Amino acid sequence: MNRQVILTSRPTGVAQAENFAIVDASSLPLADGQIRIRNRYLSVEPAMRGWIADASNYSAPVAIGAVMRALAVGEVVESLTEKYRPGELLVGWFGWQDEAVVEQSDIVRRITEVDLPPSLALGILGINGVSAHLALTLIGEPTSGDTVLVSTAAGAVGSAVGQIAQIFGCRTIGITGGAEKVAQCTEHFGYDAALDYKAANFSEALAAACSDGVNVYYDNTAGAISDLVYPHLSLNARVVICGTAAISSWSPWPDGPRVERHLLLKRARMQGFVIFDHMDKYEASVAQLADWVRSGWLRYQEDILNGLDTCPDALAGLYRGENKGKRIIKL
Amino acid sequence: MNRQVILTSRPTGVAQAENFAIVDASSLPLADGQIRIRNRYLSVEPAMRGWIADASNYSAPVAIGAVMRALAVGEVVESLTEKYRPGELLVGWFGWQDEAVVEQSDIVRRITEVDLPPSLALGILGINGVSAHLALTLIGEPTSGDTVLVSTAAGAVGSAVGQIAQIFGCRTIGITGGAEKVAQCTEHFGYDAALDYKAANFSEALAAACSDGVNVYYDNTAGAISDLVYPHLSLNARVVICGTAAISSWSPWPDGPRVERHLLLKRARMQGFVIFDHMDKYEASVAQLADWVRSGWLRYQEDILNGLDTCPDALAGLYRGENKGKRIIKL
Description:
16 strands; Quinone Oxidoreductase, Chain A, domain 1; seven-stranded mixed β-sheet; 331 residues; homodimer
């Protein structure tokens, strides 16, 4: 039998535990070209909110009654293609379930960095780390001496952005919530400065930290934090729009202070980034990130839950801010 | 005597006639390196609102009591530098006055396209045309087959954008105000379609015209028109922020629907453009534009007022929308 986490109803905001159910399904026989995967680690992503939402997104919404879409690390247990062999560890769209029968197109990559923990392929060596690396370099274009400001600075993406910007010789400022995460930013992830957006003096602290202007703003929030950041953009600044976590719903569409005047006066650029447009650069990016991890320049933090039963509440918990690091479910 | 238009008070919105006065000043003697210019054509620009405003801008505000800052075409009448000779026609920051005593740094260029009317150096062969050309190509990156949407489509910048996009093989849609300007867009400036933003069905007409998505949005407005355009951006769209004419004041700072989600979902880019960053490309751009004018591919429309007395109300008139084409004052 194969235990699966099924989406049973469509939430208006963030999916809660009651929007999912765990069901027992039978193991399916393989068709030609298919591969049977035994999942070992399941990923939990903030972007899952968008994958579930019944609104315009970069992918079709997860259907009601379908297994929750998720990246996972799994082992090939049976294969009807010569390309993959039993025992190999793969990353792919294997879903929140014990076992997946997949096509080759569901596979993102074979894990080759066998000296490192396989769970990293869902975080620092997965779409979080690769998004941080590619969006920062392709859109942010950081140059030594730049000030790079990161929202969700202690998160799976943000913490990688800050450290990669450091490797590029930038001054890094992280924005995060609460004293514990502020300390994690400076002590664990090496930010030059970290600011608590929940602090009463956040606006003044931000202005002081950004008095020389922000050359690169890497944002995952798109809300009140960004509204305070935009006035501090420097000439020719680059704003990476990688997520919109601060906005709980786009229906009705929320207003905010207009950005056009900042972009004009500062000749600044804002650009959206979705990792799935850049899969041709994925493997090279993972290789670079793995080298940085091995050399100790790139640190990571994992938040590991145990067992499939933790899936239904895992995404809601992410939005409650209860995780410290990349949330992964170990099976 | 030298008649000058002086800024006498700082307006909160657009400068009106009563914010200026015309005074008689004496002709100054030249110091070494200076040039005396007899102005022939004075420019009137929407951007003058920003040059006058007492707010953050890309240049220091015009001082109270100073001659109004303006580009002009003038003839050298006396020169204490070997670089410029009496009789030459120059474009530069000569101000709203009959005669200017200037430094070499105030001169933008010598007019070399002597077969074309010299007033063009303030419009289609001046910062309007060059802004259209450089911002469209450098930020908009138009490709044959793209849909290019232009706000203020009949204006001095917008009308050039639409025609240049046509030269690049794009489908062009213009947005303008009123039936007369709509007809001018399609009949005179060659837009494939033109929409009246004052029409009751504008939103529906825009959606229909942009049903295949907007690859390039060249904007001079930053207001309600843009808010309707952003949802129609195509994947990888480019938004050129060249002006913010729809916003009469940035104090208090106006709100609008948030743009981040559009930029993320469409992996789109918004970027501000100020011509003064690109003066190294100015001469080459003028040469290209002049060739297009000569070949009949690039048409223009001038709105010529007569005499210095028309200066004080000329900018307010521009914002009242009374001009048809590039507003110039002939002395």
